[in-house]
């Protein structure tokens, strides 16, 4: 968890250091270096995944499936003694463990305040959509809670199974141990009673044989029985045929060297031997029970009676364990030699009972052993033992593999449940996020192009959450208000624009026109002349410029007042507008009682006539003074020139020439026209007047 958190918060290189420390700790605790490659690779993987802004859990799942589990498999196969059939389990367990600590680390990161997050080397953070975020959080919580709950319940279940198993084994060991004890005690009592009976009945050999055969019939667990005298010579045997076999084979046959003989005779007690191979009557593994008998009140024993227990008869003990058929038993004597062992164990009687303690690789408190040397494929057993009064031990063994298989099944189920749950989580989250974000997306897309009519329509269906519906209503209200404001604004702008246009027109009028006469002013005439001259020059056309100066205007003012003068100026202007009515002509008030006419593209031949007509019209014009209703007329002197447009681009040059003519006209007696047509020769300096 430590290096998962470091990888996500601080990036791959800090994670590498952290994983080194963590793996060292694990190595010291497990004495296994496998943590180094697996966890260092994992830390780097998670760190680099973070740089690509991949969620830790998704990166972790990929790591364990693609690298972590294969690496674990290789490691277990190469460097451990784990039986092959448990490898898959170990690999899955490691993968599940990996997912647990990654998901816990990822949950912890969710709780870490934002300012701890390392952003220095991070590539630009992608903005994730709601569905992706929801899927991750849902998957993370599901994975961590599911894994923890399943593993905790598995743990308790397996723990309970182990306790039950241990208890069963203990019960079986106690029960079967007690049964073995009773079995031995019974047979020892039989031999002791027989010895007592021999002591009572005296030395009649025929009677002894009869007793022995009768006893043997009643206790078939004895494979053979015998009675020997103090010298170790047989006096009776059962089956009786053994007696003839022995006497025929060796007249001097004696059992003096047998422990069951010496122990019983000299120590004068009922004796139970360890397991040994019989000789004389056969060569079966047997346990001898012997007891001394006495004759005629002698202190010394007169001989012994002995019964050889057939060790295979201990199967009767095993049969008592009918309820636990999976359990096996091993009965060993005080020298650790096998007296009896259940068939599946394949332990021969008299073999050394060697076993190695095992189970270190499993987290279990059960007592476990391995019957052979701890090698890969040797079966492991859980065991319990019972010590008998004579030092013998009864082991009850149960194979460990069913419990292990149960644990494996649980882990495999956990793994499968996890995968199914993840798929389910993806599906559910998609549905949920669609339920949540669908209406928002509809609102977002529709509001983009929403107009007033569309707002009235109901866009959201009845499944949309209340909060989203309220948001929708607020947006609709806002949009309606906005549209209202927009309309009001548009109206205001239209009014303002109209006012502005009027003001502009007024300004333009003021800037271009003469307020008294309504004609263009001098400034306008000067501005326009450049364009007109340029146009005519390119088309090689002449321009006529005429300056009109009203004659003796001062007298008009004097005689009729300024109102009369102004009215006169307005009347002249009106007449000018009517007479020079071509669109391209420019008529402007040049100053005081002076007017200028700019007449482009004029006909040189009839321009004078045109001016003359105006002059005559003016003389005929009757001007009525607004005050006093007196009428008068006026004349004008006109100085004009006609020249090619290339004469000059400055109006002043043209006006200067026209002024000269005006001066001439004034001097010549006023009310006349003085016109010059400037030819190229005259344009350079001299004038030619026509
Ligand atoms: N009423 C009125 N008089 C103006 C206006 N502008 C100039 N005047 C007068 O026009 C008169 C021009 O007189 P002058 O320049 O002496 O010339 P004139 O009396 O016309 O004599 P000649 O030009 O030599 O024929 C002056 O008395 C100016 O006051 C105007 O806008 N209105």
Biggest sheet strand line-up: 7-6-11-10-9-8
Low-confidence stretches: 685-690
Number of strands: 18
Biggest sheet statistics? 6 strands, antiparallel
Structural class of the secondary elements? alpha+beta
- Measured on Cα atoms, how large is the radius of gyration? 66 Å
Question: Could you characterize the architecture of this molecule?
Answer:
- There is one protein chain.
- The chain is rod-shaped.
- The chain contains 18 helices and 18 strands.
- Helix 4 packs antiparallel against helix 5.
- 55% of the residues lie in helices and 16% in strands.
- It has 4 domains: 2-127; 168-406, 2-Layer Sandwich (Beta-Lactamase); 452-503, no CATH class; 513-683, Reverse transcriptase/Diguanylate cyclase domain (Alpha-Beta Plaits), CATH 3.30.70.270.
- With 690 residues, it is of the alpha+beta class.
- Strands 7-6-11-10-9-8 form a 6-stranded antiparallel sheet. Strands 2-1-5-4-3 form a 5-stranded antiparallel sheet.
- It has helices at residues 2-10, 12-30, 35-51, 56-79, 87-111, 130-201, 205-218, 241-249, 259-267, 315-319, 401-448, 452-456, 466-512, 522-538, 553-579, 607-620, 651-667, 680-683; strands at 222-229, 234-238, 271-277, 285-293, 303-310, 328-332, 338-341, 356-357, 368-370, 380-387, 393-399, 542-550, 586-591, 594-600, 623-624, 631-632, 636-644, 673-678.
- Guanosine-5'-triphosphate binds at residues 516, 549-554, 557, 562, 565-566, 569, 592-593, 666, 670.
- Keywords: Membrane, Transmembrane, Transmembrane helix.
- Residues 541-678 form the GGDEF domain.
- GO terms for molecular function: diguanylate cyclase activity.
- InterPro entries: Diguanylate_Cyclase (IPR050469), GGDEF_dom (IPR000160), Nucleotide_cyclase (IPR029787), Rev_trsase/Diguanyl_cyclase (IPR043128).
- The chain crosses the membrane at residues 55-76, 96-116, 136-158, 410-428.
